[in-house]
Design goal:
The structure is a homodimer of 199-residue chains. The first copy, chain A, is mainly alpha-helical and 199 residues long. Helices cover 66% and strands 0% of the residues of chain A. In chain A, helix 1 packs across helix 5 (98-111), helix 3 (50-70) packs across helix 5 (98-111) and helix 4 packs parallel to helix 8. The longest helix of chain A has 21 residues, at 50-70. The N and C termini of chain A lie far apart (70 Å). Chains A and B meet through helix 5, helix 8 and helix 9 of A and helix 6, helix 9 and helix 10 of B. Chain A binds a DNA duplex (30 and 30 nucleotides) through loops.
DNA sequence: TGGTGTAGTTAACACTGTTAACCAAATTCG
DNA sequence: CGAATTTGGTTAACAGTGTTAACTACACCA
């Protein structure tokens, strides 16, 4: 009954799954091929080499993440709302799509060295969106940060920390997961909102 | 004139250097061995396998990082000072010891899956120190965070983001590096200090 | 009917981590 | 001193890796 996918898509699907289940080190062209009932060399008909295959996986995942965020972080909404939405959706995506999310960050450090620069630019669409949102918030006096670019980068890093601790199940058993997520998000957001201080 | 190191130390030194220069993917036992004028199998006299070699590298680097931080973050100093010091020293270490720092974080995601849990505990000494510092600051009313464990993790993630953007030279050319570092640190710290708000 | 892509194959190369078996020099011990 | 054992390495081999070159069937189209 299951619709037969074109080989190229099969390869991607199998790779993504194997990558998540068995890790990067034990991912081999031959294993992927066997799983697809095909020879290893056939993969080279669709991907220049292993790196390109991985890059494609990253690209796909980043694209999905971007769309997932952009679908809710609409430009017409209030700036602070948009800011919060971006943050919440980012974490939500990571938690709900562990396979895709892990590909973005686990392979990255390794494959990224050989990741072509022009493609890298493309992967930063939602990053740019965050920068823009922060800048808009600043000009409305809702935030006070010295450099939006720096701030945006810090936020990604922080969010990534939150998501990975959950995905890696490194959370202390005494901590409730959803509470951890919500509190952390709150912490990130609060750090950026302007609070009028008494001097 | 150069003092000849024991083979085990030579291997570690060579590995660290090759890892940094050529990346993880192209690090092979045979290459390391050749560089040390020895056969690949000799490495197995000192390390059970490649994973154990990498784990040793991680352990060494984490130990150095811990000591670097602990040397300045003395328990008798003021809590907020200690908090700031930990953060500053972390970033300083990363910037000044890129080879060691990259080993901690670049290999981690890959080798960490097979990293034994009891060793992992050991690598968290300075993490525990940060948690303790935050808890102390809270009980003095200097901070207000819901969960110090979560907060500490968020800080590490954020700091890692800062260090990596500098090390990977992904910094926009218009941004001055030291300004970026100082501003980012300030941003992280400010996010955690209590500001009396007017309601 | 013949030619040209298309989608796959087989065979091979140069490399990888790792193991088993071996060897020679140094050290320990009776 | 001489024998036994440990130390610090070697060579040869295995199974698995990414990748390339050369080949084969098959569909399509003139």
């Amino acid at each position: 009954m299951s619709e037969v996918l074109p080989l190229r898509d099969q390869i991607l699907e199998i790779s993504r799954h194997m990558l998540f289940k068995e890790g990067y080190r034990s991912l081999s062209m031959r294993k992927i091929a066997k799983q697809a009932n095909v020879t290893a060399t056939s993969i080279y008909l669709y991907f220049e080499n292993k790196d390109h295959l991985l890059h494609t996986l990253i690209e796909e995942s980043v694209e999905d993440l971007s769309q997932f965020i952009e679908a809710e972080a609409l430009p017409q909404t209030n700036n602070i709302e948009r800011f919060k939405t971006i943050i919440e959706r980012y974490v939500e995506f990571g938690i709900q799509n562990p396979e895709e999310y892990e590909i973005i960050y686990k392979i990255r450090s390794d494959a990224m060295a050989r990741y072509p620069k022009e493609k890298f630019r493309k992967t930063r669409r939602c990053y740019e969106l965050l920068v823009q949102t922060i800048m808009d918030s600043i000009s409305e006096g809702l935030m006070e940060v010295d450099d939006p670019v720096v701030a945006a980068y810090s936020i990604w890093a922080q969010l990534h920390g939150i998501v990975s601790v959950v995905l890696n199940k490194r959370l202390d058993r005494r901590i409730n997961q959803t509470k951890f997520i919500n509190d952390s998000i709150e912490l990130v957001i609060q750090g950026f909102l302007v609070q009028k201080t008494v001097h």
